[in-house]
User: Which sequence fits this backbone?
């Protein structure tokens, strides 16, 4: 199977059920993406109001997760999906979980922003946070796009981009450790930035998971816990 | 009924009939995709074509059924799956207009060989039908009938034992042991179907063919039959035709998908229901327009 046909069921209601799952997932993805943008912005500007908003949105994300899981349960129970339909339902439940975790990370970043607002700015790391934030946000957008279009190549692109996030995280961490050694009084503020970077790195990992789920959805095989090169070879070989 | 057998099969042994280096994955044009062949076939069918009068029902089907496997045959109505199943113990012989060609090898025996007696063949390849069809006799007689005509028991105690063992294997013994001599037709639908299974296993068959064995049963009786299939697999080779995809997914090791008389795909059941190879299989099992 190279191409997925997610419509054309004899039961049109089944078509609608699956379409609903995709639509709701993309909506949830949009909310989480905005959450990440706002969280990074709240760090940059030490904007505690915006940070509060990010924290509040988390409740909405949680509700969406539960609702989507319920919908998936209903499809499994009522339709007993097989093949691509089954993979779609499984992918939606897995992606929902990753998106919710990303929301949690955005919330953590927002809490760091409030702490920085209250205790004063860190000596550095803002530029890195801004840059990593933009990177993971772009990755998430691209992953959601790949999901909507069932585009394996684009999903692979996202998986590759995660490596860059990891590299940037490591180099930023070294820099922040230098600040901490230079000025031990700044350690707690530097830690806030460090946790922020750590959360962004985790968001990158979850985005990579999403990319892997999309490859499973379209190609039908599990590519978790494999290097990007191995995944590429598998796709080419199949 | 006119069985046209390729001449070479009459002269040659199975080794020549079936090259040992049979291709495991054929994927060309009209050919079946997936794994239609097995390393240890109990039955091997080659170039099977079936006509009803002028109408061709089966087109050039090649398939192995491995020892002790459960193979499920699925496909839309009229796709030829039941016709193919019925060829496996020559049930189609009874249909005047039906013409079967190709090779059907059971172990090393050509079952359509002109000298093949169909009575012992049907003892080796038993069948269970869609609608439970117990004889209008007692439960005991239903099971004892086959062993009697095949001379499998010389004394009453032996026959008693065959009846008990068969009913036990069919999971029916506990329910009927106190009324063995009441009518088989007085049982519930699910019990009748298990009685038919007991009847077919009483003659120690090697292969059991099941043609939609659960479609007239409720979910509980269905679950019992499915449980039974899993147990019977230890001793028998089973081919089952079913309209229930979930049933095929639950009970079988391999699944064969038929479409308009052609065998489209044969693959491990796990593969078929999660990531089928052929578009037509995908369309059918997901309930789409083909």
Assistant:
């Amino acid at each position: 199977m190279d191409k997925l046909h997610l419509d054309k069921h004899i039961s049109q209601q089944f078509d609608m059920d699956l379409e609903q799952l995709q639509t709701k997932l993309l909506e949830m993805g949009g909310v989480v993406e905005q959450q990440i943008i706002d969280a990074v912005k709240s760090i940059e500007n030490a904007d505690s109001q915006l940070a509060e908003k990010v924290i509040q949105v988390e409740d909405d994300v949680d509700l969406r997760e539960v609702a989507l899981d319920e919908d998936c349960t209903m499809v499994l129970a009522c339709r007993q999906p097989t093949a691509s339909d089954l993979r779609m339902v499984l992918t939606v439940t897995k992606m929902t979980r990753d998106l919710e975790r990303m929301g949690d990370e955005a919330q953590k970043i927002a809490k760091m922003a409030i702490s920085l607002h209250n205790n004063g700015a860190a000596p550095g790391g803002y530029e890195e946070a801004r840059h990593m934030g933009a990177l993971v946000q772009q990755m998430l957008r691209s992953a959601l796009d790949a999901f909507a279009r069932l585009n394996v190549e684009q999903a692979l692109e996202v998986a590759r981009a995660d490596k860059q996030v990891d590299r940037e995280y490591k180099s930023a961490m070294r820099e922040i450790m230098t600040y901490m050694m230079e000025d031990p009084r700044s350690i707690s503020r530097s830690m806030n930035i460090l946790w922020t970077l750590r959360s962004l790195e985790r968001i990158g990992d979850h985005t990579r998971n999403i990319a892997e789920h999309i490859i499973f959805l379209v190609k039908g095989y599990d590519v978790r816990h494999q290097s990007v090169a191995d995944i590429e070879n598998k796709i080419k070989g199949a | 009924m006119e069985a046209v057998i390729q001449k070479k099969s009459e002269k040659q042994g199975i080794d020549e009939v079936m090259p040992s280096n049979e291709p495991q994955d054929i994927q060309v044009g009209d050919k079946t995709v997936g794994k239609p062949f097995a390393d240890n076939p109990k039955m091997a069918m080659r170039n099977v074509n079936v006509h009803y009068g002028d109408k061709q029902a089966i087109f050039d089907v090649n398939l192995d059924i491995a020892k002790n496997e459960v193979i499920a045959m699925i496909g839309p109505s009229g796709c030829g799956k039941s016709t193919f199943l019925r060829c496996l113990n020559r049930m189609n012989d009874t249909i005047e207009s039906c013409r079967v060609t190709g090779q059907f090898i059971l172990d090393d025996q050509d079952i359509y060989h002109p000298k093949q007696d169909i009575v012992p063949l049907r003892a080796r390849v038993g069948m269970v039908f869609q609608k439970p069809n117990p004889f209008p006799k007692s439960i005991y007689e239903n099971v004892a009938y086959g062993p009697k005509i095949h001379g499998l028991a010389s004394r009453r105690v032996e026959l008693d034992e065959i009846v008990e063992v068969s009913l036990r294997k069919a999971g029916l013994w506990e329910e009927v042991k106190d009324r063995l001599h009441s009518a088989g037709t007085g049982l519930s639908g699910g019990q009748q179907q298990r009685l038919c299974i007991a009847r077919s296993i009483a003659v120690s068959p090697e292969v059991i063919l099941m043609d939609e064995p659960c479609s007239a049963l409720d979910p509980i009786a269905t679950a019992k039959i499915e449980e039974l299939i899993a147990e019977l697999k230890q001793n028998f080779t089973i081919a089952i035709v079913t309209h229930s995809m979930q049933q095929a997914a639950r009970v079988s090791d391999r699944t064969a998908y038929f479409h308009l008389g052609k065998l489209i795909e044969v693959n491990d059941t796990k593969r078929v229901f999660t990531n089928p190879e052929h578009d037509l299989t995908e369309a059918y099992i997901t309930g789409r327009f083909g």
